[in-house]
Amino acid sequence: MTRRFSGAFAAFTCALSGPALAATLECSIPQSAAGGGYITETYVFHHDPGDRTAVVSDSVILYFFDAPIEARITDDSDRKLVISWDVPMSDRTGQQTRMVYRATYFRQNGQMTVRATPGGGYSNSFEGRGTCRAV
Fold first, then answer.
1. Model confidence, pTM
2. pLDDT confidence band for 54 (50 / 70 / 90)
3. Mean of all residue pLDDT scores within the chain
4. 36 closest CA partner among 112, 94, 129, 116
5. Where residue 3 falls among pLDDT bands split at 50, 70, 90?
6. How many CB atoms lie within 10 A of CB 30?
């Protein structure tokens, strides 16, 4: 999936060269058991200030959708940017769920926390922490 992600990332960033105020973040999350395979190594977010939506991409999204998807901005303050999105998925046995993602970017220190929670009454959740840089 890495090669596929790299090509999609290049197309994604080229397509987003828009207004100077737009923000594109590339975030790196070290892999750990806490991520459960649902939190990936690289996230790319594009957000125009004032918009209530963003565009997000990672290898899970590219696996299920073949392209970046639209996400919701749930908080956009001087302190942080919170972005939420859902990924419907199924496993090898056909069991389906909707994974609910929430990424919180702390503007002051460039830190990012990504959480994934499966819908449908599952009690577990997954988390990763890393850093972002503007691209």
1. 0.82
2. very high
3. 86
4. 116
5. very low
6. 11
Sorted by where each begins, the domain ranges of the chain are 2-134
Q: Which amino acid is at 97?
A: T
What is the distance between the alpha carbons of residues 26 and 3, in angstroms, rounded to a whole number? 16
What's the token pair of residue 36? 């459960």
Single-letter amino acid code for the residue at 109: N
**Would you mind telling me the total number of residues written for the chain in this entry?**
135
Q: What is the DSSP string of the chain?
A: -HHHHHHHHHHHHHHT---TT-EEEEEE----GGGTTTS-SEEEEEE-TT-SEEEEE-HHHHHHHSS-EEEEEEEE-SSEEEEEEEEEEE-TT--EEEEEEEEEEETTTTEEEEEEEESSS----EEEEEEEEE-
The first and second tokens of residue 63, run together, are: 């696996």
The domain defined by 2-134 folds into Porin (2.40.160)
Nearest-5° angle of CA 85, CA 52, CA 124?
25
- pLDDT tens track for 74-133: 999 999 999 999 999 987 788 888 999 999 999 999 999 999 999 877 788 999 999 999
